[in-house]
Design brief:
Helix content: 25-40%
Order of helices and strands: EEHHEEEHEHH
Largest sheet: 3 strands, mixed
Strand content: 25-35%
Shape: flat
Number of helices: 5
Strand order of the largest sheet: 2-1-6
Length: 179
């Protein structure tokens, strides 16, 4: 198993040696949703896709319920989800009230097994000129990857909407990092 990456140019403004630098950036594959996971589990088991979907939907509902109650959830080989607070530090114990709590967020800690697996993943450099791979360069601001002009949102076909959106995000990030 390996993860694809491309080389990108960035302007680094902090550290001992600021300036234009080059680094590796992951090329994300298409997002995976519950529908695809249900198809895969169904194909690898005796359960129907509808049965699997029902279980996965209830997993979401039950996890949300328990997290919002303050419980930690251990999901085996995947890892642990736990709620945490953001709160202001107060001078005295009596000053700690509901108003000192800034908000709730959810932490995810991968399991020991998953951490070991992550260390064994390989990497492969991919050609950034292949259609669908997003590269953050000055050229990507005015052209899409592969040299084609960027499509306007209204012109995008449903199948290419995600690719166009990714290019816009890439362009926005490039412009942001060049500022």
């Amino acid at each position: 198993m390996s993860i694809a990456y491309v080389k990108v140019k960035r302007t680094i403004n902090v550290g001992d040696n600021p300036g234009e630098k080059f680094l590796a950036q992951i090329v994300r594959e298409q997002p995976v949703d519950l529908d695809l996971i249900a198809d895969q589990i169904s194909g690898a088991s005796t359960m129907s896709k509808a049965d699997v979907m029902g279980v996965l939907q209830q997993l979401q509902v039950q996890m949300s319920y328990h997290l919002l109650r303050g419980a930690t959830i251990h999901l085996g080989l995947l890892g642990t989800f736990s709620p945490s607070l953001r709160a202001r530090a107060m001078s005295t114990v009596d000053d700690v009230t509901v108003q000192s709590i800034k908000g709730l967020f959810i932490n995810f800690r991968s399991s020991t097994w998953l951490n070991k697996e992550v260390k064994n993943v390989g990497f492969r450099l991919v050609d950034p000129t292949i259609k669908g791979i997003q590269v953050q360069t000055a050229n990507a601001e005015s052209e899409g990857v592969g040299g084609e002009a960027m499509q306007e949102e209204s012109e995008a076909e449903p199948a290419s909407t995600e690719s166009t959106t990714s290019r816009r995000k890439t362009t926005a990030k490039t412009q942001e990092s060049e500022s």
